[in-house]
Amino acid sequence: MKTISRHLTCSSVLAFVIFCLMIVAGPAYPKENFKLRPGAEGKLCLKCHETFQKTLKSRAVHQPLKTGRCSDCHDPHTSVHQKLLTADTNALCTGCHKELLPEKARSTHKIVADGECVKCHAAHASDNRFILIKPGNELCSDCHKDVGTQAQEVRFKHSPLMKDKGCLNCHDPHASVKSDYLLKNVVPALCRECHKTGQPSFKRKHLDYPVDEANCNSCHSAHGSNTRGILYDKVHLPVAENKCAECHLKAGAPNATSTKKQGTELCKQCHRDSVDTIFTKNRVHWPLMDKTGCLNCHSPHGSRQKNLLEKSVRETCGKCHEDTVKLQQWSISNPKNTNLCEPVKTGSCSSCHAPHSADNVLLIPKDSISIGICGECHKWETHSTHPIGEKVIDPRDKNLTVECLSCHKACGTGNKPNMMPFETTYDLCIQCHPERRK
Amino acid sequence: MICASNVIPNAESETVMHTLIKRLAMIAGILSSGLILTASWGAETLKFSYITSIYADQVDTVLQKDSAAQEIIALKHPEGVACDDRSLVVVADTGNARLLRYRFQDKTISNDLPPIQLPELTLPARLQLNSKGEIFVLDRKTRRIARLTPEGAFHSYLEPSGLPSPTFVPRSFYIDRNDAIHILDIFSERVIMLNSEGQYLAHKKFPKDYGFFSDLTVDFKETHFLIDSVNATVFAAAKDAAVFSPLTQNLKEYMRFPTAMTSDSRARIYLVDRNGSRIIILGSDGSLLGRLSAMGWKESFLNYPSQLCINSRGEIFIADTINNRIQIFAVKE
Lengths: 438, 333
Fold this sequence. Notes:
The complex is a heterodimer.
Chain A: H1 2-25, H2 43-48, H3 52-55, E1 60-61, H4 63-66, H5 89-96, E2 107-108, H6 110-113, E3 125-126, H7 136-143, H8 145-153, H9 159-162, E4 175-176, H10 189-192, H11 200-205, E5 234-235, H12 237-240, H13 264-268, H14 272-280, E6 283-284, E7 302-303, H15 313-318, H16 322-333, H17 342-346, E8 357-358, H18 371-374, H19 404-407, H20 425-432
Helix pairs in contact in A: 7-8
Chain B: H1 16-31, E1 35-37, E2 47-54, H2 60-65, E3 80-83, E4 88-93, E5 98-105, E6 108-110, E7 124-129, E8 135-139, E9 145-148, E10 154-157, E11 170-175, E12 181-185, E13 190-194, E14 200-205, E15 213-218, E16 224-228, E17 233-237, E18 245-246, E19 258-263, E20 269-273, E21 278-282, E22 288-292, E23 305-310, E24 315-320, E25 325-332
Antiparallel strand pairs in B: 1-2, 2-25, 3-4, 4-5, 5-6, 7-8, 8-9, 9-10, 11-12, 12-13, 13-14, 15-16, 16-17, 17-18, 19-20, 20-21, 21-22, 23-24, 24-25
C-alpha cells in the first residue's frame, strides 16, 4: 500500500514538474496548429500591425516575416515572454539557426552564447545585410571601441579591415571551430590566404627567414599600427632594425628561426645589466629559470603593452596565478568592497610584487612585507588608534607583530569587506580580543 | 582546541556542499577534544590533531635546563622542513639563513644540537634527509643542492656526473628510502634520478602539456609524482613508465596554488596549497581524501605554508612560512 502511495506521489510531482516546464519552456503545441484560415497567415497580423508594411520594404527582411509566418516566433494569444514571443530569445533564434553555435567551437562570441542575437540583428528587417542593426565595422565598434578607434586612427591600416566586409574578413561573428578570437582560421594560415609567402617581395621583407609557419601576430598588429609594415608600435629594437640574427640563427641556416641561446641567456646578450641585477636578489621568480625564461611574460618581437609584456600585467600574472587574479576580480565586483587598494582595483600586481626577483618572501621588494610595502601609499600611522608596528606582538602568534596584513589580505578578499578576511569587523577583532566576544 | 571563528574559509571556489561539509567537520572537530576532523570525500576519513609549534631556535625545555642559554632567535620565514623516522627534525630557517635541528619525541620538542650556519647556505629553502642522516639543502638563491654531513658540516654540492644535457635548474628534489636522489629540473624539463653518490642513473621527461611543476615525490612503489601548480594537477609515472600522465584532473576547485608535495608510508599524497594556506590529502589513485587547516594566524592555522614532512609515526611537520613557525600535527587512521 505504502509503495502504491509513494508511486502516486512521485507521479504527481513529476506531472507537476512537466506542467511547469511546459509553461516556462514556451508553446505547448506545434506552431502550425493555430488553425488559421487559408491565406490568412501574415495578412491577419498586418491588419493591425500596419507599420510592418513599411518594414517589409527594407533591404533585408527576416524570412519568417517575409513569408508571413509571424507565428513562427510569436504566439498570437498569450506568452510568458515579452512581445508574445514563443520562447526565450536564445532558444527562439537557435531553434532555426542551429549551425551558428557549433558543438566544438574553439571560441564563441559571448553575446551569441548569451542569446543576445538582437544586439546585432534586427528581429524583423533592416537595410543592412543579414538584417544587422548597423552596417559592417560600425556595428562591431559599438562594443569593441578600442579596436574600432585604433583601426580608424592608425597611420598604417590593415587593408581587409577597411574593405567591404571589414572585421568579418578575418573573424566569424558567431563562433569559430578553428581558432581563438573568433578567427576564421588559425594564424598564419589565415594570413596566408592574402599574403603569398613564396613571393620574392614577401621573402625580402622578412629577410629570407622561413616565416611561413611563424605566428604573424608576434610582430604585426592585425588591426593596424603607426609603424610601417603594421609592426606593433612597441617593437623590440632588433626587430625595428631588421636585426633578427641578433637572437635567431642566420637566415640560411637549418632551423633558422631557432634562437641562438635559451632562457635568460638569450636576453642577457643585450640586457646583461638587468639580468645580472635580477640574479643578485635572493629570490628569482621561478619561470625566469626555465628554457623560456623572459619570454614567459614578454613578447620578443612587439606588443601593445608597456615593456613588451605579452598582455596586461593582470593577464600576464593571471596566466599562472589564475587563483589570485580571480580573487582580485571577485573583490572588484563585490559591492561591499568599497575600500579596495588601488593596485587591487587596477590589477597592478607589480605595484607590490617585484615580477623578476626580490630579497623578501612573496617577491616583495621591501624589507617588510606589510608596513614596508603598504606604507608606500598608506599613512599607516594615522590609520587608527590600534597599536601597530614592530613593538606590538600579535597575540595570535608570538613570532608576528601587528601590521597591515594582520587584519587585511593584500590581494583582495572576495566578498568580504575592507580587504579583511572576515565577514565583519567584529569577527576580526575577536581574533585577538576574545573577551569581547558577544 | 580549534576555534570555529578563526577559520577563514577560502571559499571563493567552494561549492555550498563543501562549505557545509567543512562546517560539520569543524563542529565535529571541536567536539572531539581538539581534534581537527577533515572533510572526507573518499571512503577513507583522516583525523588530524594539532600537537605543537616551533617558534625559535631554542625551545622552552632547553631554556629551563640551561640558564646560560644564548639569546633566543625567532624563526623568520621558514621554508623547509625535513624529518626522519627516529626523532630528528631539521628546519630551514630561511630568513635567518640557517638550519635548526630538533628532536621530537613523545609529543615534546627539544633541541640539543647547535644551529647550522654555513657560507654555502645563503637562503636554505628545501630540505631532505637520507638514511645516513646526511642533510641535503636546496638553496633558493644559488639554486644549488648542498650536501651536509650528519653533524652539519658542508660536504659538497650535488653535481650529477654523467648527466646528458648538463644544464639543470633544480626547483626541488626528493630523496627516497633507498637514498636515491630525484631532482626536478625545470630548465631541461625532466626528473633526474641519481644514486646516493650523485651519479646519473636515468631521467624522465616532463609531460607535453603542463603549467609549472613545483615539486615532486616518490612513493614506496617508486612511482614518481609531480605537482603542476598552475593547473593544480598531479602527474604520475610508475617505476617502469617512461612518461608522466595526469593522475588527477584539474583540482583548482579544491586548492589554489599547490607548490609542495610528499607521500606517506601508505602512499597517500600530501599537497601544500601555498596560496590557499592548507594541506590537501589525496589517495594514491588521486582521489581526494580531505584537507587540513585553513588560512589563519592562530596555532593549527597556516599562512603560505612551504614544505611538509611526514614520518612513519604519522607526525606531520609543516613550514608555516608567513606565520614564522613550524607546526606539528598528528594524523590518526
